[in-house]
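ok, trying the design again with the full structure, not the truncated one.
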């Protein structure tokens, strides 16, 4: 029978110093969740690297070119003020070559979830979006 390669050959040991009380409370919380410390830390690391663009809009998303292009286009369009939702959809549809009816689901919602946008105005009669800016928004 062929021997499987150990996962240890692709791992790296990481050591950190943490207050004892914090470790005990952390382990208790993990026990309740049915996880061990290593699992939880690996999960946290995976979440961190798979969602690197959660800085509240200081820089365009680094992990999704479409979202980065959309964010830059909205920054340029907003010029510091809110944008009518229909106008944002039209502009993004044209710039990104994405059907207008898909813009909310494929672009605006993910940007909102990551903290780059917020909805403003009357959600029924006059929906607008506000683009969050930061010191490095021109990057």
């Amino acid at each position: 029978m062929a021997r499987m390669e150990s996962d240890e050959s692709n791992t790296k040991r990481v050591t950190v110093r943490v207050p004892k009380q914090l470790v005990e409370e952390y382990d208790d919380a993990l026990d309740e969740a049915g996880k061990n410390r290593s699992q939880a830390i690996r999960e946290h690391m995976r979440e961190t690297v798979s969602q690197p663009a959660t800085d509240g809009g200081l820089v365009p998303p680094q992990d999704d070119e479409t979202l980065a292009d959309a964010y830059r286009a909205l920054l340029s369009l907003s010029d510091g003020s809110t944008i009518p939702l229909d106008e944002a959809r039209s502009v993004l549809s044209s710039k990104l070559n994405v059907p207008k009816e898909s813009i909310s689901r494929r672009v605006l919602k993910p940007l909102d979830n990551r903290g780059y946008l917020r909805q403003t105005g009357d959600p029924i009669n006059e929906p607008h979006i506000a683009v969050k800016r930061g010191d490095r928004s021109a990057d």
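Keeping the full-length input from now on. The helical segments are 20-33, 37-50, 65-78, 85-96, 100-113.
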